């Protein structure tokens, strides 16, 4: 099985980490909006 180039792997990991960061920010934002009002 041929492995994809390192460039592709690093790009995918960067993209996935970026998506994870956006997801965590969205979760924090929505939880503060709905559950953390006034706090």
TrEMBL record:
Superkingdom of this protein's organism: Bacteria
Record protein name field: Uncharacterized protein
């Amino acid at each position: 099985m041929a492995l994809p180039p390192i460039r592709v792997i690093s790009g995918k990991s960067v993209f996935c980490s970026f998506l994870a960061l956006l997801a965590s920010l969205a979760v924090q934002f929505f939880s503060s909006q709905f559950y953390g009002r006034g706090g």
